Amino acid sequence: MLRGRAFKFGNDISTDLIVPGRLAHLRSNLPELAKHVLEDADQTFASRVRPGDFVVGGSNFGLGSSREHAPLVIKMAGVSAVLAKSAARIFFRNAINQGLPVLICDTDAIDDGDQIEVDLSAGTVRDLTNGIVLTFGKIPAVMLRILSEGGLIPYVKKYGDIRV
Questions:
Q1: Are 51 and 3 in contact (CB under 8 A)?
Q2: What is the pLDDT of residue 33?
Q3: Which are the contacts of 3, defined by CB distance < 8 A and separation ≥ 6?
Q4: What pLDDT does residue 9 have?
Q5: The pLDDT value given to residue 162
Q6: Is 83 left (phi over 0), alpha (psi -120 to 50) or beta?
Q7: Could you count the other beta carbons within 10 Å of the beta carbon of residue 28?
Q8: Whose CA is closest to 134, among 78, 56, 59?
Q9: Over the range 36-59, which residues count as b (16 or more CB within 10 Å of their CB) and which as e?
Q10: What is the pLDDT of residue 164?
C-alpha cells in the first residue's frame, strides 16, 4: 500500500517540464538534478515533496523526448507513483523500467494536497480526503514484480530473465 499527498499538475506535462533542458549538464549528477524536478511546472514542488507523495497529472503526462532520467528523478524526489488520465508511451515504459508506477485513471476529482492511498495489486486509488475510490487497469504480474524490485535492472540482476 502506497500513501502520500497529491501534487496536482495539469495536462501535457512534458519531459522538458519534468527535467528542464537547461539543466542537461546535471545528468551525471542525478541527486542534484532531482532537486530541480518539475520546477518549471511548480517552482516549489522539489522543496515540498516528501517520500511517498504522488504526482497527479491530467492527459498526456510525460510527452516529449525520451529522457530516461525524467521518471528517475521523479522517483528520486520521493514520489511513489504518478497518476494521470493518460501518459506518453515512452515515459510510461521508462518509468516502469525505473521502478516508478504510472497509473492511468480519471484524476479530475483529486485535488492538490489530498491524501491518497494506492493499492497496486487491487488497482485502486483511494482519496482519503474526499472519500472517492478510483480504479486503474490491472497491472500485469510481471510488471508488479519489476516495480517491487525497484525497476528492470534490479529485477534482471536478481532473476536473470523476465519471468511471466
A1: no
A2: 85
A3: 52, 115, 116, 117, 118
A4: 97
A5: 76
A6: beta
A7: 8
A8: 56
A9: bbbbbbbeebbeebeeebbbbbbe
A10: 62
Q: Domains, the chain, ranges and CATH?
A: 2-159 (3.20.19.10)
pLDDT digits (tens, 9 = 90+) for 76-90: 999 999 999 999 999
Low-confidence ranges of the chain (pLDDT < 70): 163-164
Query: Which of 37, 61, 35, 58 minimizes the C-alpha distance to 112?
Result: 58
Euclidean distance between CA atoms 90 and 92, whole angstroms: 5
By three-state DSSP, how is residue 7 classified? strand
Per-residue b or e along 131-144, where b marks 16 or more CB atoms closer than 10 Å to that residue's CB: eeebebeebeeeee
Do residues 135 and 142 touch, judged by C-beta distance below 8 A? no
CA triple 13-44-92, angle to 5 deg: 30
What pTM does this model have?
Answer: 0.93
- Residue 34 corresponds to which cell in the numbers above? 532531482
CA gap 34, 74 in Å, rounded: 7
Can you give the pLDDT at residue 21? Answer: 79
